[in-house]
């Protein structure tokens, strides 16, 4: 599924968090150990099994498969974070106690070491989807001084996440993408949740040729009519 898993950390404190830990938790830990970092938590951009692990959707759920992810990190005592609207599905699919999942609202600030991240609620692909923005004006922040947005399945180079899933919403996605276009600095790098059309973009490029470019809501809904 060409998923990306991201690590964001502070080079001074050697602490890091993993974003969308899935598929190969032991492999993720080997990368962390190789960088001489300490994993202190996990963040989910949304609840889907290919980003958090757990039980896959039908018909694959009938196979009894459990994808490694948040559950394995929870069993190691690591705190896991997500938006409140996706909390129920994460808990159900990964069989972790509800009180062990830390939920956040739109605009929440989260720090690992001295690196501060902002959680922006961007519903559409799922009710609790969010993008994670790291400003470039922080010492040691990624993105060559421009900052980064880890966009989950909200923004892909030239496209966005699927809107034909049971709890997806084309209308909410329209509002989310319009907000990203308004609020995210153009120079910021975009790192998506899958390598569907490249591993990196910029907000500026997506405003020119991707789905951050201007649409009326009528145009958008016509594009996604089912």
TrEMBL record:
<dbReference type="InterPro" id="IPR051453">
    <property type="entry name" value="MBL_Glyoxalase_II"/>
</dbReference>
<protein>
    <submittedName>
        <fullName>Predicted protein</fullName>
    </submittedName>
</protein>
<dbReference type="InterPro" id="IPR036866">
    <property type="entry name" value="RibonucZ/Hydroxyglut_hydro"/>
</dbReference>
<keyword id="KW-0862">Zinc</keyword>
<dbReference type="Pfam" id="PF00753">
    <property type="entry name" value="Lactamase_B"/>
</dbReference>
<feature type="domain" description="Metallo-beta-lactamase">
    <location>
        <begin position="2"/>
        <end position="194"/>
    </location>
</feature>
<keyword id="KW-0378">Hydrolase</keyword>
<dbReference type="InterPro" id="IPR001279">
    <property type="entry name" value="Metallo-B-lactamas"/>
</dbReference>
<dbReference type="GO" id="GO:0046872">
    <property type="term" value="F:metal ion binding"/>
</dbReference>
<keyword id="KW-0479">Metal-binding</keyword>
<dbReference type="GO" id="GO:0016787">
    <property type="term" value="F:hydrolase activity"/>
</dbReference>
């Amino acid at each position: 599924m060409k998923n990306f898993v991201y690590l964001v950390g502070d080079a001074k404190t050697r602490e890091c968090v993993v974003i969308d830990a899935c598929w190969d938790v032991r492999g993720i830990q080997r990368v962390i150990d190789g960088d001489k970092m300490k994993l202190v938590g996990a963040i989910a951009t949304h609840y889907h099994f290919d980003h958090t692990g757990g039980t896959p959707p039908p018909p694959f759920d009938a196979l009894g498969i459990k994808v490694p992810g948040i559950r394995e990190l929870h069993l190691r005592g690591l705190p896991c974070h997500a938006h409140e609207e996706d909390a129920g599905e994460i808990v159900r699919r990964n069989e972790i106690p509800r009180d062990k999942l830390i939920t956040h609202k739109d605009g929440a600030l989260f720090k690992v070491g001295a690196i501060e991240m902002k959680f922006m609620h961007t519903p559409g692909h799922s009710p609790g989807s969010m993008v994670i923005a790291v400003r470039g004006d922080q010492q040691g922040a990624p993105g060559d001084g421009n900052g980064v947005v880890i966009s989950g399945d909200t923004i892909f180079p030239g496209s966005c996440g699927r809107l034909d899933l049971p709890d997806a919403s084309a209308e909410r996605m329209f509002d989310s993408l319009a907000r990203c276009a308004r609020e995210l600095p153009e120079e910021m790098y975009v790192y998506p949740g899958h390598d569907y059309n490249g591993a990196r973009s910029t907000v500026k490029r997506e405003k020119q040729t991707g789905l951050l470019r201007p649409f009326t809501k009528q145009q958008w809904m016509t594009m996604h009519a089912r």
